[in-house]
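At this stage, I put together one protein's amino acid sequence and its backbone structure tokens, which the following lines show:
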Amino acid sequence: MPGELSLKDPLSHHDITIRMVPTRQLSVIGHQRKARPAHLKALAASMQRLGFITPVTAVERDGNYVIIDGQHRFQVGVELGMKAFPVVVVPAQLARKMMSLNVEQALNIRERCTIALSIYREVLEQTPRKTEDDGALVDAIESAHLVTLGLAYERSGRLAGSAFEPILKKCDGFLDRTIEEAYEVRQGRGQRVLDAAELVKAVEDALKARGAWHSMARYQIISFANPTKRARKASDFDRTFDKLISTLEDLVRSPKRALGEPIE
């Protein structure tokens, strides 16, 4: 193909290709961070001065290409009227790992969960009978609890996921089940997180009614109710959330206990 160069990366010796790809054959992976308008404006000014000298990185799928690095450059290039782009095409087996690592700045918890869930669902669609604790999936996602939180976020965008993360890290690991089976388990776990979140809100409301609420009350409530805070080993998810929810139900009736005050 004219304008194509095939080579091996000098460190891990993966086969990669650099080629010019028509704009119509390029799309962006759905879960990447949206750029700030000011960043796009500055990027456009830079590209107009210097040209498009840094290729985007993509994986080939069904004769087209999905960009996994360079979406902002691609977006600006399209706006500037580019009809084709220089693309570094990487092997499909590297794509998932690159998607989890490709960040231009630190991601917040919700964004991390969105990426993890997107990768998880892709693996689920392609290899539903692979076990969830398979090394390839573990390497791509790194923490199973991000998938659980991702499912919870889909149902409630107002979830304070970072407040529950310390608990989930101790009780929500990868499962020795097929991904197909594990996905159903994770949907149930996501709902348990939301059930706990609703009770936390009820405790907050009870504190507000007593004039005792403050801006960090949510984290203080969850920390008080956390049954794993002194645990050194991994805990069972169901037992952990049974205890967490039971404590939160008690706090709805006596909310000031979470603030270290005596039972009313």
About this structure: The chain has two domains: 4-94, 106-259. The mean pLDDT is 88.
